[in-house]
Design brief:
The complex is a heterodimer of chains A (493) and B (243).
Chain A lengths: L22 H9 L2 H23 L4 H17 L1 H14 L2 E6 L2 H15 L3 E4 L3 H5 L2 H7 L3 E4 L2 H8 L16 H11 L11 H18 L2 E4 L3 E3 L4 E6 L3 H7 L3 E7 L3 E2 L5 H12 L7 E6 L9 E7 L3 H5 L15 H5 L1 H6 L10 H12 L20 H5 L6 H17 L6 H13 L2 H11 L11 E2 L7 H4 L4 E2 L6 H8 L5
Chain B lengths: L12 H15 L34 H13 L3 E5 L4 H11 L16 E3 L12 E2 L5 H4 L4 E4 L3 E3 L4 E4 L16 E7 L3 E2 L2 H6 L7 E4 L4 E2 L7 E2 L6 E7 L7
The chains are: A alpha/beta (493), B alpha/beta (243).
């Protein structure tokens, strides 16, 4: 990448691509929540087992991954052409295509379309793009109620909560917590409701049925859009997607521009990769595919909103652009030792886990200093498990390193050096002289004044606080290596 | 090298997003100087398609039917085997097993009326009410729907509907709580590539793999949320080969 390319990042102050505090602070709270860690550990363990079994059934899995990677790479290289083709095909089949530079523009387009129908409520299919742009809040400002219909999104909405996982947004909640929430927030719920998942799912079915039947407008995302036919694809499990895509008169689909695939045939790859990676199923229960408007079947009016919101900024980086290949399966979250312990909320962005750590900072732009997303590329041990399971072979560890470099470069370009840079310069000066190094070793024993109980130092004074704000430092040993050497071997040397 | 440009008045979002894409691709070393219709560096890389494509076992062969049956049952669908011409009896049995229709126990499903698409062979479900554009609320009053299908994929246990007259519009297979779907042996193919090759991408398509389900609570799979909670597949064997 040339350092001069900045692109146009997603605007701040709208949507959910940034948290309100940096990852290290949020992660510390999450780690202290033992209920959260139990819930996450259980759920991610179950998903990992299911995925491994579903993937293991196919002897051509690696060939499918290579094909998926190549299709995405080729698509991005001609993204402009594919979007223009998609626009033409959707328009030719009775749909209307809108373009949105950013979250604010997309929210304004959707709000205007809903207002034009006269509706004051709508039903929604779970969609990452509309979460990313904060659509529900924008609609609420215009007096429009958006009903989330995916079970997990309903749990989130009822609890005034935020999603913590791409596939199962309420993964941080266990059945007892959900039972308690339904009892408190779901109107007319059976008081004898138990915490059995089947009973909870039936309660959601009853709760949403009337809403589906009366809804006049629906908003969805899209898993794929096929350029050469204009087909939109939504992959789901519960049937709430089919309800939204089929029953209302007006359907509005908000889709990131990177979701386009060139040809119908490409779906034969992704419809194998996605379900097995995502829910660990051979195929998800329902996949809806539609092109424009079909007279007598489904919505009479179809709008497709193509969203940039920082995607072209990511596209401008020769390495980072691979993050746009993501098909949102969430397999990388489920295998990540960091995600498994801190959960999705700590990442701040609606895109958590390894893919979120490379996608979110690129969408919002990486800035030096205290930008909340700047710490995300460091939220990884670079173990590489995410790369191994990624169905489109995104080399997430390399992208993380790339973003760390970009962050350090940005800091280096600032007129005032950072504490880290000063510390590194000081360390270089100390370590380049045996005398200075020995003196520093002796001085380090001052550190033994702290951390007596825990054996580690969790908060050091500035500028060393830059280190301990995100990790502990070990308590210095009683004697240094040199002292030990001269004590035990000194005479014989 | 590209200088980021602020949002320009008078430039449409479409033109600006497309310009950003071209600038980004140029910056990343792609799309440099290539004509719109011509090949671009890295843009026309050959896609390695050496995964299992079409051309597995012959459609409708006994091993495929057996695989489909196992996959369907694995995802909690019911399977009723039928000989060609025996569809009406099999459909009756499937509806009865789901407590739908004029049988004892139908009351708990309410009404007991069965919906059928306009192009379903009339003999298959003589008591069926033909869909003539019922509202969503009206559809909710039906206990079951009986349809044919466009194709089926054995490897994943998937049934494809494409809105043909014997399948009807999408809403009718969604709102009623029981879906009975007739699959002919010759419609059964092996894998996902074979399935998609059989479908017309411009039609409204629904791929169905078992009844509605969710894994949203502790990732425990629960069948039956918003779509039909009962899916019964009538698997119609191939006609006997002529002697």
């Amino acid at each position: 990448m040339t350092a001069t390319f900045l692109g146009i990042p997603a605007p701040a102050g709208v949507g959910q691509l940034r948290g309100d505090r940096p990852f290290p602070a949020a992660a510390r709270d999450a780690l202290a929540d033992s209920q959260l860690r139990r819930n996450l550990g259980h759920a991610t363990g179950v998903i990992r087992t299911k995925r491994a079994a579903a993937v293991g059934e196919l002897d051509d899995w690696e060939q499918l991954r290579l094909a998926g990677e190549a299709i995405k790479r080729a698509t991005m290289a001609r993204l402009d052409d594919h979007l223009v083709r998609l626009e033409a095909e959707v328009s030719a089949r009775g749909g209307t295509v809108h373009w949105a530079r950013d979250a604010n523009e997309a929210n304004a387009i959707v709000t205007g379309l809903v207002q034009a129908t006269g509706a004051t409520e709508l039903v929604k299919v779970k969609s990452m793009a509309t979460q990313e742009i904060g659509l529900n809040a924008a609609l609420a400002d215009a007096g429009i109620i958006a009903h989330e219909t995916d079970l997990a999104e309903l749990i989130i909405q009822l609890g005034d909560d935020v999603p913590s996982h791409i596939l199962v947004p309420a993964i941080h909640r266990n059945r007892a917590e959900i039972r308690e929430l339904f009892g408190r927030k779901m109107p007319g719920v059976d008081p004898s409701l138990t915490a059995e998942p089947r009973r909870l799912a039936m309660a959601a079915r009853a709760h949403l049925r009337r809403t589906f039947l009366r809804a006049r407008v629906a908003v969805s995302g899209a898993n794929f859009a096929v350029a050469d036919t204009g087909a939109l694809v939504v992959v789901e499990s519960e049937g709430n997607g089919r309800m939204c895509l089929t029953l209302p008169e007006t359907l509005i689909t908000v889709m990131g521009i990177e979701k386009v695939v060139p040809s119908w045939r490409d779906l034969e790859v992704f419809l194998q990769l996605l379900p097995r990676s995502s829910t660990g199923e051979r195929m998800n229960p329902y996949t809806s595919i539609w092109t424009g408007v079909t007279p007598g079947d489904g919505p009479r009016s179809f709008h497709l909103v193509l969203l940039d919101n920082g995607r072209t900024a990511a596209l401008g980086d020769a390495v980072g652009r691979d993050a746009l290949h993501c098909i949102r399966c969430s397999a990388c979250l489920n295998v990540c030792p960091v995600y498994e312990r801190v959960g999705g909320h700590a990442y701040g962005s609606i895109y958590p886990g390894p893919i979120g750590a490379v996608l979110s900072p690129q969408l919002t732009g990486i800035h030096a200093g205290s930008d909340d997303n700047a710490s995300l590329p460091y939220a990884s041990s670079l173990c590489g498990a995410c790369y191994d399971v990624c169905p489109v072979r995104i080399d997430i560890p390399s992208l993380l390193v790339r973003l760390r470099t970009a962050h350090v470069d940005a800091a280096r370009a600032r007129p005032l050096p950072t504490a880290e840079a000063l510390t590194m310069a000081a360390a270089a000066w100390v370590m380049s002289s045996p005398t200075r190094f020995a003196a520093a070793e002796t001085a380090s024993r001052l550190g033994r004044l702290g951390g007596r109980a825990s054996g580690r130092l969790s908060s050091l004074p500035p500028p060393l606080s830059a280190w301990t704000s995100s990790r502990d430092a070990p308590r210095p040993p009683e004697e240094t290596f040199r002292q030990w050497w001269s004590r035990t071997r000194g005479n014989s040397a | 090298m590209v200088v980021p440009h602020p949002r320009q008045l008078g430039v449409s979002a479409r033109d600006e997003v497309l310009a950003r894409i071209r600038a980004a691709n140029a910056n990343a070393g792609l799309g440099l100087g290539g004509a719109v219709d011509g090949p671009r560096a890295d843009g026309d890389v050959a896609i390695p398609r050496d995964y299992r494509g079409g051309g597995g076992p012959a459609p409708g062969s006994p091993p495929l039917l057996d695989l489909l049956r196992r996959r369907l049952i694995d995802y909690r669908a019911s399977v009723v085997d039928a000989a060609p011409g025996d569809e009406p009896a099999a459909i009756r049995a499937a509806l009865a097993a789901a407590s739908v229709g004029p049988t004892p126990g139908s009351a708990e499903r309410g009404g007991g009326a069965v919906l059928v698409p306009p192009g379903l062979p009339a003999s298959w479900c003589p008591a069926g009410v033909v869909d003539d554009g019922f509202t969503a609320v009206e559809l909710d009053g039906f206990a079951a729907v009986v349809t044919a299908c466009a194709a089926a994929c054995a490897l994943t246990g998937t049934i494809a509907l494409d809105g043909s007259p014997d399948q009807g519009r999408r809403a009718i297979t969604l709102v009623p709580d029981v879906h009975v779907c007739v699959v002919r042996a010759d419609q059964v193919v092996h894998g996902v590539p074979d399935l998609l090759a059989r479908l017309d991408p411009t039609r409204p398509i629904t791929l169905i793999s078992g009844p509605s389900a969710t894994s949203d609570i502790e990732f425990e799979r629960v069948e039956g949320v918003h779509g039909p909670r009962t899916l019964t597949v009538i698997l119609v064997a191939a006609p006997p080969a002529p002697a």
